[in-house]
Amino acid sequence: MNGAQALFNALTNAGLDTCFANPGTSEMQLVYEMGKSDAVRPVLCLQENVVTGAADGYARMANKPAFTLLHVGSGFANGIANLHNAGRGNVPIVNIVGANATYHQPNFPEHEFIGGKITEVAGAVSHWTREARSAAEMGILGAEAVSQAMIGSGRISTLIAPTDCHWDPAPDAPQAVAPAPTSRVAGSTIASAAALLNNGRKTGILLGTHALREEGLEIAGRIAASTGAQLLAETFPARLARGEGRVEVQLVPYFLEMAQFFFAEYEQIIVVGALPPVSTFAYEGSPSHKAPPSCEISSLATPDFDVMAALADLAEAVGASDETSPRCQRVEPDQPQGVLTAAAVGQSVSLLMPEDAVLVDESATAGMDLFQQTVGARRHEYLYAIPGAAIGNGLPVALGAAVASPERKVVALQADGSGMYTNQALWSIAREECDVTIVIIKNDAYAVLNVELARVREGEPTEKMLSMLELDRPTIDWVSISKGMGIPAVSVNTAEEFHLEFEQAMAQKGPMLIEANIAQDLQPVVDLILQQKAARAEQES
Amino acid sequence: MNGAQALFNALTNAGLDTCFANPGTSEMQLVYEMGKSDAVRPVLCLQENVVTGAADGYARMANKPAFTLLHVGSGFANGIANLHNAGRGNVPIVNIVGANATYHQPNFPEHEFIGGKITEVAGAVSHWTREARSAAEMGILGAEAVSQAMIGSGRISTLIAPTDCHWDPAPDAPQAVAPAPTSRVAGSTIASAAALLNNGRKTGILLGTHALREEGLEIAGRIAASTGAQLLAETFPARLARGEGRVEVQLVPYFLEMAQFFFAEYEQIIVVGALPPVSTFAYEGSPSHKAPPSCEISSLATPDFDVMAALADLAEAVGASDETSPRCQRVEPDQPQGVLTAAAVGQSVSLLMPEDAVLVDESATAGMDLFQQTVGARRHEYLYAIPGAAIGNGLPVALGAAVASPERKVVALQADGSGMYTNQALWSIAREECDVTIVIIKNDAYAVLNVELARVREGEPTEKMLSMLELDRPTIDWVSISKGMGIPAVSVNTAEEFHLEFEQAMAQKGPMLIEANIAQDLQPVVDLILQQKAARAEQES
């Protein structure tokens, strides 16, 4: 047995059966092992941010990690942004990264970085990083990588595997590793939270990671019903059980100004499986925190703890009955007509999306309307594509979710600017014949930046400023791009056209892309921000 | 004045006038400054590896850096692979990367990495990395970043700029920084090299970085003519002056087995502006070095030294006359006919490419033939896209080279698998109306990996192995993709069709893409490798 075989056995013995891959020369020994075996389904992706994003989407739906196969430091680097998204969403991924032979690294061949080692780069977006130094380590490190990925709500493990560790002989011994323990929240912490819930103050329970899945929401709903607390969801949920019959939660808004309004009434927040709510960006003269200073924030469990056990313990501590807080009701809006807006897209999606679909959301500014419109859809799993706010994960997550859940319809609501980042995912979706309907929400701009520019500019934006934010010269023809990678596609301009095409997509299996040319008016958001800016300026003077 | 203005002034005062950008919220203040000014041309790119690769191509032709504008850690990460290429090619780039406000970083908002800071990630592919800690530092750090990028043959500078350092007040003082000195090679080292050149042994002068530009080759040619040494070029030259009238150099082959054959006759190698020639990858049972152990390698100047001065000093030390070693002769092959091979593409390119064109090469396995066929082309600049061997830089480099050299025709020979990595560059090429002819060398595979798999497999490859190397299910329609991003495109299948389309592309200005469906036979390379493998196995038994 050689090191590559030992590693491959360790990964498959630990239950991994799916590999998203973009291999190179240094990974050929693993390609060879995988190619000889029936134990793993390899999915080739044409750029590494598709590889890592697909592994993210897969794990969110499969509840276990896939492993990635990445080519040396630069290949890993190409996949960092979506590993960052997965890591911030506490989604488990096991990365296997080839590297130069241990003895060849000091010769500084082309793939070696000029200023540091890949271990340092990998460590920035991995909870656990190791570089094998001999073939004998390959099996045990592979098993450890899986074990470490399963801690808490999920983690990123990265094993760097130099080529000589692949081809050198390795011991035959089984390499099972006991699961790494996930910490239970202490009884005193549970009791404190229970006391807070009984103190009569206006309380929000801010849920994240596994607390937002069906089982978590059921328990949280019982706690809320018995205490009068409001259930809130983190702004960027990796997976949220949603739609008809699911316990209802309020999403914390993205924009600081809206979030401040949202939190204004709360006196205390208890965070469960999430982090305290801070603004994604700081703005000059504005606070960092979304909740007011008067609102006390306490943490029941960060995502590293056993979040489900913490919720169950809390339910018991508050003596929760079987009754839950309100559930989402099915809403059947009128079939939308006329101008194609984000809201109209949302209405058609809400009307037509089948039960137990997966809704992947990277719709950016259009998402505010889309999210509102789809709360009354049939029961579904909602995956916010980018928990780490790094754009370009929607199409990869859709690919991975479809590979994990071939029985579910996957609907990807994808903004155009973000979608271009990883358009290569279309090819893998076509190749794997995934049942994915992609809706490109096309506004020909990085529209959010028009909002953000309003915060810093004096006067109107110049043509040159807009040239750095707008995508309309030339306009991108997503139908052509999609067909170029093997996915049939149509372009629509009215609510009626969209409804018809989306209806057909829902009625069939297999990949389909709809370019939805939407009309969008973000002026109300800009106005809100400018009003607050003016108010601050007046206060200061 | 605020920090963003101080930084912008520092960059423009240092002579920078081009910015490749993909900004986000934390860079809006710089978008605003750039948008108010005439001093800088911003070029929007739809993914950061296009941004950094375009900055690479720009600097290779402009002989000064562009600056990039990148959005926080994940945006920087997306651009790492091509920064790695530029860094390994010693091409100057100045990166400006937005970051969370200094006081907001500890709140761990979404863009903060899990386990490390962006400074460590940036440091892996930058020669110089700083994070501003106050607005007062922005100007001086901007000036230093440019100065540091200009050391030696060129370096990567990265300045991380938190948002509060943009909006806080900054001093008005001018921020000029003296150029950082580039080390001269010591006289004793020159004398040693001169002595080697006179010892009567079979000698190769292995040239890299600026030694391969026109001025460098002229001096090297005089040294070669007076000493009988052979001029060699590093395998992956960032820029090589080539074609009719240029001093001829022999490129060191990529594949180890071919390189060993190439170096077999040499007794000593003197390296100038390059590194000693090692194999890109180590292989089981094979040496790391391309030259035999009996061949002595000495370094006259690494790329950090003043390479041109070293060459001039060496020419004087050996008493070189004005006579040079042989120059490339114009070769006008017959117009190719029939099956479209890489060689046929090369012949048409050689026949038709106008004088002073820029030939960007990321043709991968097809490059062996293409490089041979274009040595007799008209005078041109040859840019090997990926000095760091990280695929996906050809289209970005073509974009950047065209922005730097609007008077030159740019021809990009681009392999299909690598081209997909950064296909987004097509949009910027269309938008900037670049005079670029892109030839997609389409073989529907990561063909090099078929060669590399042969090294490790026993028996024939399985379907499953090939599924990780081949791109033919579905085949990629580059014409559709290209049109989708605004570049007219055609697909050709014969040598005659290619010749006709390429001829038309050379006769017009503006972007054009030709999908060249080539027939390729790599079996001779596989056979060579398998022969050597068998010979090693026999030796061992």
What does this structure look like?
- Two copies of one chain form a homodimer.
- Chain A has helices at residues 3-13, 28-36, 48-62, 72-78, 80-88, 118-124, 138-149, 163-167, 187-197, 214-227, 256-263, 307-317, 342-352, 367-373, 394-404, 416-421, 425-431, 447-456, 463-467, 478-484, 495-507, 523-540; strands at 18-22, 41-44, 67-70, 93-99, 128-131, 156-162, 203-207, 230-233, 240-242, 250-251, 268-272, 296-301, 357-362, 380-384, 410-415, 436-442, 489-492, 512-517.
- Chain A has 541 residues and is α/β, with parallel strands linked by helices.
- Chain A has three domains: 3-167, Thiamin diphosphate (ThDP)-binding fold, Pyr/PP domains (Rossmann fold); 187-317, TPP-binding domain (Rossmann fold, 3-Layer(aba) Sandwich); 342-527, Rossmann fold (3-Layer(aba) Sandwich).
- Chain A has a seven-stranded mixed sheet, with helices on both faces. Chain A has a six-stranded parallel sheet with strand order 2-1-3-4-6-5, sandwiched between helices. In chain A, strands 10-8-7-11-12 form a five-stranded parallel sheet.
- In chain A, helix 10 (214-227) runs parallel beside helix 12 (307-317).
- The model of chain A has no long low-confidence stretch (mean pLDDT 95).
- The interface between A and B is large, with 109 and 109 residues.
